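Incident log, structure service

09:12 report received: a user says their structure output differs between two submissions of the same chain.
09:20 pulled the input from the user's history:
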Amino acid sequence: MFFINVANPWVLLLSLFLVICVIYIGKEAKNAYVPMTGLVVFLILLIMHGIQFLILPAQYEYMLPDISKCLLVDFLMIFLSYMSYLWIDDIEAKAKKKKSIDNSLEWFWKNV
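09:34 re-ran on a clean worker, output below:
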């Protein structure tokens, strides 16, 4: 069975490094579509791991804990990517002097 184990420590560090690099590139380019690529990749991984979790054959039951860990990592990386997307979208709106409909992270910074 094909399985991408993103809960493996080395793969997790590599993916975290790549997400941080993508966030930095998006911040420097002032383009919110750059961190959105990471968000889309982890959404695809989440869907893939969810389907694997639901239709896992009985002979692969030993993989359930690993798939559960991968789902958790996917959710955390989606959260990180989404927050960075909102942050860079705000930077892009200020740089291009666009009027933003709402300040998406204002509620977050007020509570922190």
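09:41 both user submissions now match this output. Likely a transient worker issue. Closing.
09:42 reviewer note: The first helix runs from residue 9 to 29. Residues 83 and 105 are 8 Å apart (CA to CA).
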